[in-house]
């Protein structure tokens, strides 16, 4: 038998559904879309949780869905949510009386910096990766900040974590990457680690694990790690907690 509470929730659910129906009757251009393509929503879920594994481009029918995801503020909202959970964890680590060996690792692209202006001009990840044009974009040094990551970065630093920036960008992009990070508001990192000659051809997951392992061997305790790719967060020498940021545009294995 249905309890009064469950009847009430059914009524509330009905009210929510019908108000969504009502909203749908109004012109869309002034509204942030409240519902979206359920199949693309499920596709995005599957790639974000890595159930899809490696994938090379957004399914054609989901390109405008991904565009909307960025344009309606959902991307910012998701990254704020992940950053606040990350901060909660950071606050739970006792670094106050520490030895300066508690570390936090940040990735660069789609983590500290956003390449959205580039991807906006290049089909939001619906086109195959073009190394030449992407490198040209990197060389401009104009990648904007991902605001939630800057806030997290500053707070984690203030808590006393040593910050390591570990990127798949190459050593020859060091100067422009450093300047771009500074222009975006970042400062005070312990080390910026880029791919050197010896890392060429390595999968990101191997390269990043090896670099984290070097930190562990130096005595650092990697407490947290923030990255938009599973290859930032898996492998070995893992952080105690890894935080996956959203990225439905591309996959790096
Ligand atoms: C990749 O980008 C370069 C530089 O913008 C361009 O000349 C080239 O045609 C692109 N390649 C493909 C396959 O689109
Ligand atoms: Mg990245």
From TrEMBL:
<comment type="similarity">
    <text>Belongs to the APS1/VSP family.</text>
</comment>
<comment type="function">
    <text>May function as somatic storage protein during early seedling development.</text>
</comment>
<dbReference type="GO" id="GO:0045735">
    <property type="term" value="F:nutrient reservoir activity"/>
</dbReference>
<keyword id="KW-0732">Signal</keyword>
<keyword id="KW-0325">Glycoprotein</keyword>
<protein>
    <submittedName>
        <fullName>Acid phosphatase 1-like</fullName>
    </submittedName>
</protein>
<keyword id="KW-0758">Storage protein</keyword>
<dbReference type="Pfam" id="PF03767">
    <property type="entry name" value="Acid_phosphat_B"/>
</dbReference>
<dbReference type="InterPro" id="IPR005519">
    <property type="entry name" value="Acid_phosphat_B-like"/>
</dbReference>
<dbReference type="InterPro" id="IPR023214">
    <property type="entry name" value="HAD_sf"/>
</dbReference>
<dbReference type="InterPro" id="IPR014403">
    <property type="entry name" value="APS1/VSP"/>
</dbReference>
<dbReference type="InterPro" id="IPR036412">
    <property type="entry name" value="HAD-like_sf"/>
</dbReference>
<feature type="signal peptide">
    <location>
        <begin position="1"/>
        <end position="20"/>
    </location>
</feature>
<dbReference type="InterPro" id="IPR010028">
    <property type="entry name" value="Acid_phosphatase_pln"/>
</dbReference>
<dbReference type="GO" id="GO:0003993">
    <property type="term" value="F:acid phosphatase activity"/>
</dbReference>
